[in-house]
Specification:
There is one protein chain. The protein is an alpha/beta fold. The chain has two domains: 356 residues, ABC transporter transmembrane region fold; 235 residues, P-loop containing nucleotide triphosphate hydrolases (Rossmann fold), CATH 3.40.50.300. The chain has 21 helices and ten strands. The strands form two sheets. The chain has a six-stranded mixed β-sheet, sandwiched between helices. A four-stranded antiparallel β-sheet has the order 2-1-4-5, with helices on one face. It is elongated, with a radius of gyration of 37 Å.
Amino acid sequence: MAFLPVLTCKLMNYFKEILKYAKPYKSYAVLNIISNVFYALFGALSFVSLIPMLDVLFDKTQAVNVAPAWEGINNTMDYIKGYLGYYITTQTDGKEQALIIVIALVLILFFLKNLFGYLGMYFIAYLRNGVLRDIRDDLFKKIVHLPISFFSEKRKGDVIARTSADVLQIQNSFLSILELIIKEPLNIIFTLAIMLVMSAKLTIFMLIFLPISGFLISRLGKKLKKRSGQVQKEQGYFLSLLEETLSGLKVIKGFNAEDRLTESFQNSTNRMYRFAVKLNHRKGFASPVSEFLGILVIGILLWFGGRLVLIEESIDPTTFIGFMVLAYNILTPAKALSKASYQIKEGNASAERVLEILHTKNEIEDKKGAIAVLAFAKAIQVNNVTFSYEEEPVLKNFSLDIPKGTSVALVGQSGSGKSTIANLLTRFYDVENGTITIDGTNIKDVTLQSLRDQMALVTQDSILFNDTIATNVALSDKTASEEQIVDALKIANAWEFVKDLPKGIHTNIGDSGGKLSGGQKQRLSIARAVLKNAPILILDEATSALDTESERLVQDALEKVMKNRTSIIIAHRLSTIQNADHIVVMKKGEIVEQGTHTDLLAKEGLYHGLVGMQSLA
């Protein structure tokens, strides 16, 4: 069949990549193949068994008193018919009993065919769903290990679409075809073998036309990959828009922007509507065309076979009817394989999007021979670091020493590079020029896990999960006891409200902690840092979004946490850093002043001006 090379070529694009996930389930694949072998065998025989039934039904069975002799495979049908005539003549009493026997044979063969068909589906289910699970697991693992910079370039909704809809499309296309390329060729092979035995002339005639129709069918899917890719890309966009809308509902409503967001969403769904309509039109066109081409082949066979029956009389009418049934039995799997050629194009588009994430190189990962930091002992040193997110440098030749046990505050206007220091210390991003060392070792030579084990992070936005308080606080240690969790909550001044909740630490806090106030959420973030008990504490604008009362409670909690720890405090509110051992004033990525609160006030420089603006002088 001419379309099979085309199908094979398309399969090879991404099929090898997906097939790697099937290796753990190869035993199920073997059982599926064995089941399909018997399914194809009994499927072909079940249709052949209709011929003797028709012979009995139309009284075409000849009386034979001597058992026929086997004269080779070319005379198989004559031997079967002769033996049936001999059996009916000598072993049965009347035509009714003969009819019952051949009907029983037909039922047994169809039963066996369907039994092995079910077993084939039973075993392949483990492979298909196992591969689906493993791809999603690998995708999630890859996503959580990719650097933060990857997600500044990708929409979250697009990543969600790749993990859900695209992976499902791979199952519906590639993994369905995994079944087809075993099952349907076996059906064709067994059926063709029997057809050759029945009539070599008719079979060869049919094989002339079948590849032509198969090639025409395969050509219909030429643009499906492009259409499918457009649909999936647009689906990722509108999922991103939906996710952003749900996250920013307060702002949207506060600015009366409902109509504007609705218009953006409708523009996206309209684009997807146009792409999907074109895709469905092409897919819908393929079905009737392939159906018509199949019937056209059957029509030509009826003409040629009819001549063999009526004019040349080289084939029996009942054998010809059986042959036509088998021919239709070949057209069904042939049409399925032709359909698979444009299913591949849809699967290719999805596989391309999924494998793009799986193949993304993680620029921030452990280098070969990286060592583990067992305990922070001396100091963190930032040496002549230059860094930029795009073209304009955010930090320029920045240097800073942070001895163990000291508290260092970074202050300055927005965009001065304060939070970038925190991102570089934790290796959310890597420095471009210069080095950052911990106890004299470049952090690029240290394992990420051991580096981040030394640090606890409290950010301006309290990142909480839709789970219990206990789970959120014990994020770094799932084995933490309830006593440890409660102790951490007490240090963070959070126990005072947690103890009054209906289920205490086992209370679910809702999506992003939506059931709690801003101050309560921030205190839970601090409790999470307390329980981790890391020697280095990074506070990135930890109180800037709080009201005065919440700020007092949070600041009190932070002062408890910072005792005996090395603290890096990034702050807008200068009232929170007056007691810091060292204050660094930044402007446009450079240090303009540094010293204690008292020293900097005495200089009457930039820091003095910032304090004056906040009425703290």
